[in-house]
Amino acid sequence: MSDDYSELEQELGERLPDLGNLYESTTDGDYEYLRPILDSLRNEKGHYTDETFVSAGGEKRIFKVRDLRTDRIVALAKPLEDASEEQKEQFLREGRLTACLQHPNILSVHDEGLDADGNPFFTMEYVHGDTLKEIIRKLQAGDESYIRRFPLPRLLELFVKICDAVAYAHSRGVLHLDIKPSNIFVGPYGEALLCDWGLGKVLRNEANVNAVDVPVEELPNGDILNDLTKTGFVKGTPGFMAPEQVVSHGKVSTRSDIYSLGALLYFMLVYRPPVSGESMLEVAELTLNGNIKPPSKAVYGRHVSSGLEAVVMKALALDPADRYQSVQAFRDELDRFLMGFATEAQDAGWVVQAGLLIKRRPFAFRVALISFFLLLLVGVGAFFRVLGEKREAEAARNEAQRNLVLYKQETEVSMALSDSIRATALDFINDEDFLNAPGKIKAITSHLQQETDPGNRQVMLEYLALLHFVVQDFRQAGECFSRIQVSKRYEACRDLALQYGANKSDHEWLNAEEMVALLNEVKRHIRYVAYYMAYYYFSEHPRMSAEELLPVVEVMLDTLNNLSYTEKSMSRLELTSRDQGLHLSLSGEPYSIFIMPIPVPIRQANVLRPLKLHSLDLSRSGLTDLERINGMLVDELNIAGLEDIPVYKFYIFERLKVRKVFHSLEHPDKYLRKHAPQVEFVRVENSM
Fold first, then answer.
1. Is residue 628, in this structure, part of any structural domain at all?
2. Is 435 exposed, middle or buried (CB count within 10 Å of its CB: 0-12, 13-18, 19+)?
3. 152: which of 218, 317, 560, 576 is 20 to 30 A away, CA to CA?
């Protein structure tokens, strides 16, 4: 088929003669609205907007500006005001060296140049978050939110990203030489960025650089980027720099960065550097002596794995030849640890190897152990039976006695196994754990076909009935309840199952009005059952409108906050439809708890989330802690009446995706903009 469309165009022109006029009638003025980016670049009067000071430290100042060419916020770095010409040159070397390194875990440099006054600058990506040093200090201080966000496995994930960044730099022949917690930036979405390459050095064709297939023109130019003005001076941070960096004219290599990575990992485990002292001279002497306590002896109250400790101590070896020979080898060791294997540095024996294997494969180990005992039991039985047959001719009495002993042994083992199964089922009921109800229903139903012990059947049937009950299979729940003597605690569930099962088929959900009536009955007896019924109703019920779901949400709010209609207004909650979406007002209501206490993700436990609100009014309500509404999404939020928000809880606004907040907080506006720059804060009067 030909690609020439001229005939088709001619035919369309004849059949629709006015079609071309639709486009030809556009005036030159109209076109201006079709090319705003092109016109803005043609009319550009500058590259960056006015500078907003952010911070200063080390040898540079950081400002926040907008790049008018790409319309994005960037960080602009400048040397200190009293910087010498040599310091300005070193500043530009840092910017250009960083720009040569393009990796997801290295802070990107976008531009470099001189401003209108002839002062050097470079721009880089502007990100929010904390330095690793600030995070560790929060953990050391016992900050609960940071403890939840940064457990050890999460810290190790961040550390692996930094290893990737250093490995990449080494592949380009670049050493960092100042790896420390304050030079690692952790963003709110898992970003880990290695910053401050001011002490970096470019190696030229040395054996300790990891060779990769990189064109020569893509490699950094050491003749320009290496700092030639400070040769022979000690460069680095005491406590984190390798012994060869401490001595004057020491020969640095990729293993110097590996030492710093080991010191960084040590800091993450014990919350302090591997070497510390009252003066820099003392720290230098201890570093040169290799006097480092293993993490397990340097920290109290926390367990440090022997495998991870061996990795840290190998990276911190005094002699570079005893350290890991590459960052990739270091990273491979961490991968072994994270996957549950013994590390090479650990030199683990067969006992440790076996213990780690059991931890990696607990289910397989249980199956193997049970199979072993069953085979052993069968083998013992077979042995006694064969032995009995051989001696049958000798004495019938002895044969009978041996068979009796065997019978007793098998009976005792059977009873022990039976008790174990029953105890497991009892644990489920005692914990009132009804998660994954469909899967548990299948498993217990299958096991019941083989179970003969009356006590075990009683326990499993009662648990099975409750699982059917929470997913509204009332007929099957009633059938299970009818086969057992129901515990007094669950008699109400049995009666409700029989009542609702008479009028509803299984796998058919109650409507909202029926659900409200049922929840009001259930919560009077067992609240936990009500929580799970609401959880399945919200997550698995066919889609309902927010207006239909609102009564169910209200009864769950009353249940969570221990309220009844005698303790609050008799009027029901109402949704208001606005142009942007739905609005719910809980102003003046005594609600302070919105998350059901069941072990599911918060977004599934928050009873307001199914309403998919645009705005929520919690002014002068019972809310005292923003974390209580975590798990939902809302564009606008009214928290008038709330007086204070701890600084570490400002992350909630980002979790909620909230864009506008009406408030009467005591914090000044500048403080609010600093800690939640993405939010528009509107101050209102806190009138009762």
1. no
2. middle
3. 317
Helices and strands of the chain, counted as H and E runs: 28, 16
- Structural domain for 370, as ranges: 361-426
Averaged pLDDT for residues 661-686: 91
pTM above 0.90, yes or no: no
Angle between helices 396-431 and 437-448 (to 10 degrees): 160
**Is 349 within 8 Å of 357 (Cβ atoms)?**
no
Nearest-5° Cα angle at 509, 513 to 568 = 30
CA distances (Å), origin 156, targets 20, 160, 258, 430, 454: 63, 6, 16, 36, 50
Residue indicated by tokens 């600030």: 134
Q: Say what angle helices 132-140 and 254-270 make with each other, to 10 degrees.
A: 30
In a domain, 625, yes or no: no
**Of the listed ranges 177-181, 235-239, 407-411, the one predicted with least confidence:** 407-411
Instruction: Tell me if 343 sits within 8 A of 337, measured CB to CB.
Output: yes
Which among 579, 593, 649 is positioned nearest to 621, based on CA atoms? 593
Task: Tell me the CATH number at 158.
Answer: 1.10.510.10
Buried b (16+ CB within 10 A) or exposed e, 194-224: bbbbbbbbbbeeeebbbeeeeeeeebbeeee
Per-residue pLDDT for 612 more than 80?
yes
